[in-house]
Every structure is written in C-alpha cells, then in structure tokens.
Amino acid sequence: MAEVPVADEQGTAGRPGEAAGGAAEQGERIMRGLRAWGATYTEFTRRFAAHLGLHSTDAVALLEILYAEDQGAPLSLARLGERISLTSGATTALVDRLEKAGHIVRVRGEQADRRVVTLRGGPAIGEPAVAFFTPFDERMQRLMASYPPELIERFEGFLQEMHTDLAALLAEEYSGGKPRGRHP
Fold it and tell me: Parallel, antiparallel, or unpaired for β 104-108 and 13-14?
C-alpha cells in the first residue's frame, strides 16, 4: 500500500518523517499529490461506471459529454473521440451504447454547420448522476469553504498555469508521440 502524504509541523504535505525542503522537494510533493488525486479520481470514475453498469471507457466518455455540456460547449462525436483517444468507429459504437441506454442524446443543428451532431445528457442520466455525485459535491464544497478565497484563487491560477505549460509541452515537444530530437 502506498504511503499517504501527511502534514508536517509547518502544514507542508510530505511522506511521514520527511522534512520540508526546497523548491525541488516541494515540486515532488506536489506531483505526488496530483498523481494521488488522479489515481483516486480514476477509481471514483470506475465506481461511477459500476453504479451505471457501464464499462469504464463508456463512463469516462459520459463524464466528458456531461462536463462539456455543463460548460456550455457540447462535444461533437469527433471531439469526443479526441478527448478519449478512440477511433471514429469505436467512438460511434460507444455513443450508440450510451444513447441506447438513455444516458445521452444526439442533437443536430446546434452548430453553424447544421450537419454537426452534438452530444448531450439524456433522460436516463439525471437521477443516477445526481445520486452519485451529490456526496462528492458536498465534500468538495466543505473542503473549499475551509480555505480562504484568496488561497483558492491562487491555487486555481497555479493549476491553470500547470495545464497551459503541459499542453504547450505536448504540442511543441511531444507532437509526434516522443520527445523531438531526443532518441535513445
């Protein structure tokens, strides 16, 4: 079992017995924390899939569709395929399954190009999603309320910068799937 990060006397998270160090050590602790959050969120998504009786890939796709819709930018089939790294045929089969279960609907005519199909939550997803995500939402709200708004704002900025930097690195350095000009 992996060690769980704990807070030291200064409130700095680290491994048990690990003293707070410089920027490099702090960066390692942050990366450990982000990896731990990612692994836990993956498990959360797996349990959402089980809650709905779906394969985990279908649940990930459903979450992408619901999130995009919630953000006011519903996904097309092609964009969903990009987001979850599936071929167009596999994406279509997945969307067919989700639509048949009533979890999503396909909508035509929402884009400038009226041929583009967008994906939205369907009639069968509302109640199960609310039942599953309400405890998560409540805990996140309590957690966020326990920190000063200024700190949350700084953290949001930090996360956005991390996202922007990683996206740029992927586009510039790893566009071919491996680092440019650095072959073993």
Answer: unpaired
Confidence of residue 11 (pLDDT cuts 50, 70, 90): very low
What does the chain come to in residues? 184
Residue 6 is predicted with a pLDDT of 45
CA nearest neighbour of 118 among 106, 126, 128: 106
Closest to 88 (Cα-Cα) out of 97, 79, 74, 78: 78
The CA distance from 132 to 145, in Å, is 21
Indicate the range of 132-136, 163-167, 169-173 predicted with least confidence. Answer: 169-173
Dump pLDDT digits (tens) for 12-43: 454 544 456 788 999 999 999 999 999 999 99
Distance CA 86, CA 80 (A): 8
Q: Is the dihedral of CA 89, 95, 97, 100 positive or negative?
A: negative
Cβ pair 104, 121 in contact under 8 A = yes
Distance from C-alpha of 23 to C-alpha of 139, rounded to nearest angstrom: 30
Q: What predicted TM-score, i.e. pTM, was given to this entire model?
A: 0.77
Q: At what angle do helices 56-70 and 77-84 cross, to 10 degrees?
A: 120
Strand partners, 13: 7
